[in-house]
Task: structure prediction
Amino acid sequence: MARTVTIVHPGALGDVLLSLPAIRALRASFPRQEFGLLAGDEVGKLLRTCGEIERLFPLEGDSLASLLADRTSRSRGWAGQTFFEWLSRCDLAVCWMADQDGRLARSLGDLGVDRIIVGSPLSVDCQGAHQADRLMEMLRGVVTTCSHEEKLRLPDKVLDAA
Result:
């Protein structure tokens, strides 16, 4: 089975679209891994249809809740077992959200994720003026460059549906 990269982004459509340069930079740095996104169902479906990710784990499901639950609850068998199996093959998890108590990072580590980056791009620690720059800033040491200029390529079926 292929190794994976997991991105957790609980933001709305605009916020997730601003993360595309960072996601693409990650893809360039991890070309052999499959990419999974834990995000809102509709935005995740759009990115999957456009070929930006291979796997969607909808926020509306129990994947995030299961990560934030205690170990005892996780071991009882959530519907998120597929997500846990995905994470067991995960080389990198990038979580663009706050984790004040460290529970999210601990859970990812407990599930075997090799490298974990957790933090909110809204943090005062981020120096970039633009949200896309702040997201990239959090990936320092993992990716080198990215282009903000490549637009999202919408397949004909998406354009027709619109």
User: Anything to note?
Assistant: The chain has nine helices and five strands. The beta strands are 4-8, 34-39, 55-58, 90-95, 115-118. Residues 20-29 form the longest helix (10 residues).
